[in-house]
Amino acid sequence: MDDLKYGKRNKRGDWSPNEPVQTAPLFQFPPRLRALLRWIPHYFFPWNAIFAASAVAYWAWVIPPVERMQTIGIGWAAWLYAVNAICVLLFYGAFELHLYVLKRQENRFKYNGKFPADQKSKAFWFESQNIDNILRTFLSGVTIWTGIEVVMLWAYANGYAPWLSFAENPWTLALVALVVPIIHEFHFFCVHRLIHTPFLYKWVHSVHHNSVNPSPWSSLSMHPVEHLMYLGTAFWHLILPSNPILMLYQLHYAGFGAIPGHVGFDKVELGDDKLIDSHAYAHYLHHKYFEVNYGDALIPLDKWFGTWHDGSAEGEARMQARYRQRKEKLAAREARKQANGATE
User: Fold this and answer.
1) Euclidean distance between CA atoms 188 and 118, whole angstroms
2) H or E segment and range at residue 17
3) At residue 50, does pLDDT exceed 80?
4) Per-residue pLDDT for 262 more than 70?
5) DSSP per residue over 103-167, as a string?
6) In angstroms, how far is the first alpha carbon of the chain from the final one?
7) What is the mean pLDDT of residues 10-34?
8) Under 8 Å CB-to-CB from 119, ≥6 apart: which residues?
9) Distance of alpha carbon 254 from alpha carbon 185, whole angstroms
10) Residue 278 contacts residue 266 (beta carbons within 8 Å)
11) Verdict on whether the full-model pTM lies above 0.85
């Protein structure tokens, strides 16, 4: 597969797409009906359909009987942790094996031409990004994921969360299912902006940003506080007219859905002529520049708040202009402080 048909590679070997990143047409005004109709299949396939199917599969084969979940017990909580850990190992591991271990598509479509395993850094445990990311994923990520899952299932089993049946409320639940990705986007953007404040960035979010060159295991490599805030998207279902399957979908959208944004490749090759878009470039630019693209472009929140970078030269110019403006404000503030100090 010739990736230069779709993008370009610089002297360092970094690849970027030819076309700027586009936000979804869902919130564009006036509405562009033709663009919206072309986009709708991409809203469901492949990623959202996978996460929704995994939630249904969990409910059918993994989640304990309701009577058992009325009391939180070590047995069924440990069972859920084991299943979550195995599924994360298989799902994340499949991308790691295909793209980073076997390197079946070498560096075709890879944003950063280098591979994390080839670079040692003291920012990581054992100076290894992969070991650090894997340990943080299983020690903290899957543990907090499971804890939230257990609490939410206990709440449903005891009537503390609204549990609607599909038979009696098909349209309400269909609507909630449709907006699960939108809920995630809104929650993610708000949490993400919060943890980029100086104190939380230094002590919490910097752990995730150590992976400047993200790979699959970077997806859930976070500080425990960030894990709780990020995976806490499931808590929206304590107030939404919902049910446990949709709560699991919300949780899986966050847990398994972190993979596409951190896979490090724009497209994943399946065979000689089949490509799957990761839609990861917007979030890759966030890892590269830190202060752009706090959301994932489903809702144009970054455009509304002036932090959007689409990968184009114009996007780069807007970012640099914002940096200059902020630097000038800080310099003016410091000058005022010095002037006030001199007059006292």
Assistant:
1) 31
2) strand 15-17
3) yes
4) yes
5) -TTTTTTBSSSS-GGG---TTSGGG-HHHHHHHHIIIIIHHHHHHHHHHHHHHHHTTSS-B--TT
6) 69
7) 94
8) 129, 213
9) 10
10) yes
11) yes
